[in-house]
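Recall the central idea of this unit: under ordinary conditions, the amino acid sequence of a chain determines the structure it adopts. In this exercise we apply that idea directly, starting from the sequence alone.
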Amino acid sequence: MFSDLTVHLHYAWLVVASFLAGVMNAMAGGGSFVSFPAMLAMGVAPIQANATNTVALWPGQLTSVAALREDLRKDLLPVVIVSSILGGVSGAVVLLKTEQVTFLHMVPWLLLVASLLFGISGPVSKWLRVRAESKALAARTEHDRDATPALLPLFCVLLPVCFYIGYFGAGAGFLIMSALALFGIEDMRSLNSMKVLAACLSNLCAVITFIVSGAVIWKYCLISMVTCGVGGYLGAQYARKLNPDVLRLIVVATGVLMAGYFFWRQA
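Accordingly, the structure predicted from this sequence is:
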């Protein structure tokens, strides 16, 4: 009887965590910090948990791309698409070839690094926004947009970021925006839309790889996908009413706590 109660509690936590992941992704991001550990709590092996979590959260990224399609930079699409496909597939393949024990030992470090990246992304995004607004106030004409950067060097920078997305992915949005900014892309709408597109395509390639390889635990995936979708819809309704700095602090604190928990388990 105690065993049955434990199973029910784990299912309840998966539903709650997936709902919270949807809310977090709609408001600030970082939903994987709660949904991925919830998958592990179901007794799913670490690699399969990461694969299942990636598939469950991907539909929300697709809807984000649809909403931001008008802001996409057409001159950057080829390099972003190619790097996303190659990086997403290679990251997913390497994940599937990683030993379960090895990946489990990497989990707290991945969560910690992703949390720190997420925390840094706030100030950097604000700096980029101020910089873009300053250029706009300097009498930019309608045709004076950011010049197209050298595509081959940009591809070489984006490829390892997209590989990381296919492998684990949390916190990678900041890396994509930073890479684009380093190559002179300063318009915030372009940065955000290209970030979402790269993450969506990289994860799509990872999703297909995970499904084909049979790494997805569908009974948990569908539960998480539905409840995450509900959380995302409700979270979007309140996203603009809440302080983004407070939300970011909550997400970072959640990620650090989860990393600390896994460090403690492995001690």
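The chain has a mean pLDDT of 80.
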